[in-house]
Design a protein that fits this description.
Length: about 290
């Protein structure tokens, strides 16, 4: 028996590709982060940021929290803030899927939508202005070390143990970059030869959860030395792969997960042997109101 829903964060399964991967000596494993209680990999950093902030006395029940999000972090923060009885406002572009907005509100958070033409950068600017002018406090997933440390403490060790130390390549889409930073730090401590592959969108693509940040908005937690290789994926390929994951592997996931899987499969074709782990960061039901699965 679990004492709290938060006890279910982490320890997500690794599932081997049986259809899409055609290289017999290469194992492709999907880390199913949609199995977290909030439905995404962002449960891990959200819990660590809130819990650590409370333990250090940086936030309490009187704190007005605010955070800019493209969706999954906001859902995780809304769920966890509600459990800790914290007041939180979440800011996201107005073209975010309605499932995300409704889920955050269901957990009790205030949701503010900013114009879609200014993207997540505009949402970040809005949140920062409220911190500066109205006494709000931002958890700041883009610059908070508790973000990447969550993956150092959990995601990395789970992958190492789940592959019995046989992992050769780790593939992750890059948004806030917390997942790849923390997991890379742990895995490299175990074996420096493990290759860390980051996934970014091509210049003409808009993929929720994956960004090629302008220099001014580059996450402060990002350290390029922790990524061995960056590979790009188009919006078209990411969306097609998300549909293939659902239709051929039975893995219902979003576009950023499709992007990572597309890169992982491209990588697998270049290898004679190895074990690749690709992050499936959320569930596909976050995208049902979009055109992804039509």
């Amino acid at each position: 028996m679990f004492k709290s829903i938060l006890d279910l964060v982490g320890n997500t399964p690794l599932v081997e590709s049986r259809v899409l991967n055609q290289k017999p000596n290469v194992r492709l494993l999907f880390k199913l982060e949609g199995q977290n209680p909030g439905g995404s990999v962002k449960d891990r950093p959200a819990l660590n940021m809130i819990k650590s902030g409370l333990e250090r006395g940086e936030i309490d029940q009187n704190t007005k929290l605010i955070e800019a999000t493209s969706g999954n972090t906001g859902i995780a923060l809304a769920m966890i803030a509600g459990i800790y009885n914290l007041d939180i406002e979440l800011v996201m572009p107005e073209n975010s899927t309605k499932e995300r907005v409704q889920t955050m509100r269901a957990y009790g958070a205030k949701v503010t939508l900013t114009p879609s033409d200014i993207g997540i950068e505009g949402a970040r600017d809005y949140a920062e202005a409220k911190v500066a002018d109205h006494g709000y406090r931002m958890l700041n997933q883009f610059g908070n070390d508790d973000n990447w440390k969550a993956h150092y403490k959990s995601t990395g060790p789970e992958i190492w143990e789940g592959t019995e130390g046989q992992i050769t390549h780790f593939v992750s889409s890059m948004g806030t970059t917390g997942t790849i930073m923390g997991t890379s730090t742990f895995l490299k401590e175990q074996n420096q030869d493990i290759q860390i592959v980051g996934v970014q969108p091509t210049d003409d693509s808009r993929i929720p959860g994956i960004r090629k940040w302008p220099e001014a908005y580059l996450p402060k937690i990002f350290n390029p030395k922790k990524v061995d290789r960056v590979m790009e994926v188009s919006q078209k390929d990411a969306e097609e792969m998300a549909r293939k994951l659902a239709g051929e592997e039975g893995i219902f996931a979003g576009v950023s997960s499709g992007g990572a899987a597309a890169v992982a499969l491209r990588l697998a074709k270049t290898l004679e042997s190895g074990t690749i782990v690709s992050i499936v960061c959320d569930r596909g039901d976050r995208y049902l109101s979009s055109d992804l699965f039509k």
